Amino acid sequence: MAEKQPSVFIVDDDEFILDVYSVKFREKGYKVEIAMSGLEALDKIKQGFSPDIMLLDIVMPKMDGFELLKRIRDEKLLSGSLIVILTNLGQKEDVQKGLDLKVDDYVVKAYFTPSEIAKKVEDLLSKKKDNLASGSKDSSAQQS
């Protein structure tokens, strides 16, 4: 039986970032869905889209990434999806806020190339798959 094509949901208001990451993940065999705002992302999620992993920017118009994350957690959406914050906000308070909202990773865009981000995503999905195979209930990264 063929393995399911992994899906990545990229939420960012920067078209260049969306294009770069869409190309990178498609090259690696991912199904890619994009949204340019938190509201658009929430709408797609509520319509039933449930990716394997979501890459979420923080600074966006209408609804920022933190608000979207809070809504996802409060409404118990995407319970089977990994969520990685991918932003240029690297202040300690921002990182802590993301971790408090139970993200699987917090990545500052400026510190990594798209190829390095793709590798991080592959590693997170591989770890999740291994945890599911071994029966682990908590597949999220341990951060403190």
Could you give a short description of this structure?
The chain has one domain (7-132): 3-Layer(aba) Sandwich (Rossmann fold), CATH 3.40.50.2300.
Q: How is this structure best described in words?
A:
With 144 residues, the chain is α/β, with parallel strands linked by helices. It has 5 helices and 5 strands, in the order E-H-E-H-E-H-E-H-E-H. Strands 2-1-3-4-5 form a 5-stranded parallel sheet, sandwiched between helices. The longest helix has 20 residues, at 114-133. Mean pLDDT is 90; it is low at 137-144.
CATH topology: Rossmann fold
Q: What do we call the CATH homologous superfamily? A: Response regulator
- Mean of pLDDT: 90
Principal-axes shape call: globular
How many individual helices? 5
- CATH class categorisation: Alpha Beta
* Helix content percent band: 40-55%
Radius of gyration: 14 Å
Number of domains: 1
Q: In order across it, which strands form the biggest sheet? A: 2-1-3-4-5
Q: Kindly report how far apart the N and C termini lie.
A: 39 Å
Secondary structure topology:
Layout: E1 7-11, H1 15-27, E2 31-35, H2 38-46, E3 53-56, H3 65-74, E4 82-87, H4 92-100, E5 105-108, H5 114-133
Parallel strand pairs: 1-2, 1-3, 3-4, 4-5
